[in-house]
Amino acid sequence: MSFLFSHHRSMSIYEASLHLQNFKPASCVQYRLVVRDANTLQICQLYTCLDQIQHIEWSADSLFILCALYKRGLVQVWSLEQPEWHCKIDEGSAGLVASCWSPDGRHILNTTEFHLRITVWSLCTKSVSYIKYPKACQQGITFTRDGRYLALAERRDCKDYVSILVCSDWQLLRHFDTDTQDLAGIEWAPNGCVLAAWDSCLEYKILLYSLDGRLLSTFCAYEWSLGIKSVAWSPSSQFLAVGSYDGKVRILNHVTWKMITEFGHPATINNPKIVVYKEAEKSPPLVLGRLAFPPPRAAAGPLSSTESEWRQRSHWDGHQALQCRLARRSSGNTASQGRAQGQALCAAAKFPPSPVFHEVASVPVSLQTLKPAADRANPRIGIGALAFSPDNCFLATRSDSVPTAVWIWDIQKLRLLAVLEQLSAVRCFQWDPRQARLAICTGGGKVYLWSPAGCVSVQVPGEGDFQVLSVCWHPSGDSLALLSKDHFCLCFLETEQGVGTAFGQRGDHT
Amino acid sequence: MGDWMTVTDPGLSSESKYISQYTSETKMSPSSLYSQQVLCSSIPLSKNVHSFFSAFCTEENIEQSISYLDQELTTFGFPSLYEESKGKETKRELNIVAVLNCMNELLVLQRKNLLAQENVETQNLKLGSDMDHLQNCYAKLKEQLETSRREMIGLQERDRQLQCKNRNLHQLLKNEKDEVQKLQNIIASRATQYNHDMKRKEREYNKLKERLHQLVMNKKDKKIAMEVLNYVGRADGKRGSWRTGKTEARNEDEMYKILLNDYEYRQKQILMENAELKKVLQQMKKEMISLLSPQKQKPRERADDSTGTVISDIEEDAGELSRESTWDLSCETVREQLTNSIRKQWRILKSHVEKLDNQVSKVHLEGFNDEDVISRQDHEQETEKLELEIQQCKEMIKTQQQLLQQQLATAGDDDTTSLLRDCYLLEEKERLKEEWSLFKEQKKNFEKERRSFTEAAIRLGLERKAFEEERASWLKQQFLNMTTFDHQNSENVKLFSAFSGSSDWDNPTVHSRPRQKKPHGAPSGSPVCTSKLTKSLPASPSTSDFCQTRSCVSEYSSISVLNTAPEESKPNQVGRECTNQKWSVASRPDSQEGCCSGCSSTHADAHIEKDDLP
Q1: What would you report as the CA-atom Rg of chain A, rounded to the nearest whole angstrom?
Q2: Do B151 and B262 lie in a common domain?
């Protein structure tokens, strides 16, 4: 496997929103919206908004893009097919704090300031719907996977309620109160039949409701301590993983809604069956000149069987656009500006992953733990993030007290499979939507990929250090967008029949 | 007195002896205080005994002293010193004989006393040393007692301290518990307080929100608007519908449809899982029955009348199995029955396995007093003997070698002797060489013999093992039959009483009886087959076998023959099948001209059988 990077240097972005169908990375620079082709990174469309864009979102059919300008209380919608078409929604004095698409891609849900109400604007008709009393919480709005229903957390008279609305005509289907102190979030099961609702961190409580509002089950693991931190459904709706502040993940089953197992996150790993990948301190430096030649076999290891060459690609031209965009930057980031004007180039780099980057540590391994400050709010403990792989086989978790490690659990055997310990804290991880492949970033210049066969890491090429703050997969799993503060780049994972073999070989070594 | 004796030092002992002598003597006449006084005073004055005696009796007082002595002696029971007076008035005369006798007696007495005294003294000494020892012991023990007492006190002190500590800790624990309780109470009160405050704040907040809502939303805010170039079509291409009661009902319907679909899907999954589990269960049961039935055969034959119920029960189970339809029925009764029967079978199997385990251990323990063992011992003895012989031979060879070397060495040392001996040496060398070769041959022979013996021993061991295994299995079977029979019998009665009401169950059992008998027969026959195979295995020349089968096949060129024939000789089956395939391809054109499969197959069979049993 080789990694082909499409670099978008010298371009500042707020956000790159990768779309489901044609995966066109849209990025916004101040008040310009740039839509590029996912393969060539050529600019498809360019839109200019009225003010600084703070949030962008593709519609489900990827025909429209929503740009939210929270400061002005404005939402601007652009059509990809008809560049001249435009739509502007003004929330006026009510203000705007959140904006999102409905699953049909024809309605926009705007949340006003102070969560006074949610306004549902339709692009098809003049109709406007209002939903009162939305609750300001972690995850108050959730649509079913099929886009049929919307569940909304509400707060009235100091009690929590959940409303289930039909998305086609925004009619209320069910309205029921939840037995929670302070509802923190709701989430539909992928099959759209079960709704999980959990209480705020002060109390460990998770409630499961059927689509028709019946309470299916309640689960409480313990009392008197900080409770749930993160929740994730397995893609098959079979399992519900609940990460809590006690550093454990509890997995509930969908038949009895009882706990199947409990995954603790100990700081030392003694079981020799568990593979611990430890990021090595020194990585082979990526020097352009050296990489001009195929690297020596020994250094490159088994993965060097793939093509390894640098080539400059300049068949897409962002030069002028970039320059003018940068010229209009309001806030001063002169260093990057100057550099940008000097060499506004987009480079594509193709090179093998550095093979000697991760070493397999021998057990027992003790992981670096953070001592949480007990007297502060939101202590850095508990399971901050968890995600199931698309094939339901693996669960990746991150314990906030061990921020450098990603834990990968085997769901079939219900045991710990591997631990990846990075040098710095893990920022974000995301599973490949097509296969069991996990991309991890730590805010450094590297992307890490894990698959059941092994682990690789890739240095993002470029002279300046590219700090990968977030990763986002293409829906096809062929490429990966890496976002830094003001750059983004695309990493193409070229699968030359060798993914299996390359990873396989890696696996043998581990 | 003892004390005094122990104090005396050796220098004084001789003197003290005297003194004691005198004292003892004086003690004999304790009444004479005077003499005692004299005695006491005389010791420091003069050590001369004689002078002392002279002091007692002088010329003047012979008479008095004699009379005094006489008196004294008579009081001590000695005969009087005076002669028997013949007349009262006559003066009594000193009887010399009596005096001498008395003296002698006194001397004897004195000696005796001395001896006794010595004895007493030694005893005294002994006792004194004993006493000493005991005193030492006593002192030591006292010391020990003291130390242990001290120790005890120390331990008691420690114990007390620990108890104190414990009490303190208990107190602390209690305090902590109280603290925890208090804290929990505080937490709870804080939580309620917090909740209360939150509620109040929220209410205020809600009021404010409401107010804001009124202020912001209710007045016609011109700004709240949407500018659209033109409205776009819906994603599904349909037009939006009006909200009516109908749509509500439709929504409900749809929701329930979705839920139903989900439940149906889940039910289907569960059914599938169930079916799979049932299949596994069925398989398990079948296997159990097949495992348990061959052992039940023997008791059936042995005691037909008593085991009738057992057999019918098994057959009933089998019949139950054969009716697949019952498996699809998941009604209560069937399930219960199934679980019951499985449980029963499982119990039987368990007891069986336990019995087997016991048996195996028993066999291991008892297995050493067999005939085979004796033969093995013989073998061992034999091999030992042989080894001894070999050893002897080796030694002989060695000595001979040594001798030879010595001879050679001496020959090498001394030239003249070698020259002298040369003529002999050549001859001797020749002879020795011959002998040497002979020895070598002998050695080789011995080695060969030994090898063959060890091989024989190994073979015997193997055979013995096999025999033991057979025996064990046979024993197991026997035991099992007995046990399972017992077990079954007791259970069967129960079961039958349960099932006796339903006549439906009897029919399949009757039907299945003949069917069931066949599989019973097959396993009993199979060991014979396998044993035959194993016997024929080492002897059968496989390659020639191939050739012959091939040739016969080519002769008759029939594929069907080949398919049936190899069953007789399984070990070669794979190889033959390969050849079969080749030949089937090759002989296909031939097979068209004449395939009188019937006769050819018999021919082939005959051939193959011949091959297998040379």
Answers
A1: 24
A2: no
Within 10 A of B364 (CB to CB), how many other CB atoms are there? 11
Contacts of B254 in chain A (CB under 8 A): 148, 166
> Are B213 and B108 found together in one domain?
yes
Range(s) of the domain holding residue B164: 95-218
Cα–Cα dist B57/A410, whole Å? 132
How close A93 gets to chain B, by Cα (Å)? 7
Chain A residues with CB under 8 Å of B243 CB are 169, 171
Report pLDDT for A479: 82
What residue ranges of chain A are covered by domains with CATH 2.130.10.10?
Answer: 9-132, 134-264
Same domain, B189 and B281: no
Tell me: do B212 and B137 sit in the same domain: yes
CA distance readout (Å), A411 to A387, A402, B113, B587: 12, 21, 112, 56
Q: What is the pLDDT of residues A56-70, one digit of tens each?
A: 888 888 888 888 988
- % of chain B beyond a pLDDT of 90: 23
Residues B174 and B262 in one domain: no
CA dist B417 and A4 (Å) reads 98
Tens digit of each residue's pLDDT (9 = 90 or more) over B42-74: 444 444 445 555 577 777 888 888 888 888 888
- Domain edge (last residue) among B230, B253, B287: B287
A134-264: which CATH topology?
Methylamine Dehydrogenase; Chain H (2.130.10)
Vertex B357 angle, CA B356 and B361, to 5°: 115
Q: List, as own/partner pairs, every contact residues A305-308 make where C-beta atoms lie below 8 angstroms and the sequence separation is at least 24, other chains included.
A: A305/A498, A305/A501, A305/A502, A306/A1, A306/A2, A306/A352, A306/A494, A306/A496, A306/A498, A306/A502, A307/A2, A307/A350, A307/A496, A308/A2, A308/A350, A308/A351, A308/A352
Amino acid at B208: L
Instruction: Report the pLDDT value the prediction gives residue B373, as an integer from 0 to 100.
Output: 52
- Judge whether B208 lies within some domain: yes
> How buried is residue B254: exposed, middle or buried, by Cβ count under 10 Å (0-12/13-18/19+)?
middle
Q: A272 pLDDT exceeds 70?
A: yes
In the three-class reduction of DSSP (H, G, I as helix; E, B as strand; rest coil), residue A253 is classed as strand
Of A116, A128, A210, the CB nearest to B212: A116
Q: How many folded domains does chain B comprise?
A: 2
Q: What's the token pair of residue B256?
A: 């329930």
pLDDT, position B483: 54
Q: What is the mean pLDDT of chain A?
A: 75
Can you give the pLDDT at residue A117? 87
Chain A residue at shortest CA distance from B214: A116
- pTM of whole model > 0.90? no
Q: How far apart are the first and last CA of chain A?
A: 18
What share of chain A in percent tops pLDDT 70?
76
Contact B268/B260 with Cβ under 8 angstroms?
no
Backbone phi and psi for residue B50, each to the nearest 5 degrees, phi listed first: -60, -45
Say whether both B151 and B212 belong to one domain.
yes
Half-sphere exposure (Cβ direction) of B112: Cα atoms closer than 13 Å:
6
Residue A162, classed as helix, strand or coil, is strand
Which of B191, B224, B258 is opposite residue A92, by nearest beta carbon? B224
Asked which of B231, B261, B287 is the last residue of a domain, the reply is B287
Fold (topology level) of A9-132 = Methylamine Dehydrogenase; Chain H (2.130.10)
Predicted confidence (pLDDT) at residue A447 exceeds the cutoff of 90: no
Closest CA to A186 of A157, A163, A216: A163
Q: Which residues of B touch A128 (CB under 8 A)?
A: 226
Residue A434 distance to chain B (closest CA, Å): 24
Residues B102 and B206 in one domain: yes
Residue B19 domain-assigned?
Answer: no
B170 in the same domain as B213 = yes
For residues A435 and A445, give the distance between their C-alpha atoms in angstroms, rounded to a whole number.
24
CB contact at 8 A, B312 and B288: no
Render pLDDT for A333-344 as a digit per residue (tens, 0 to 9).
322 322 222 222
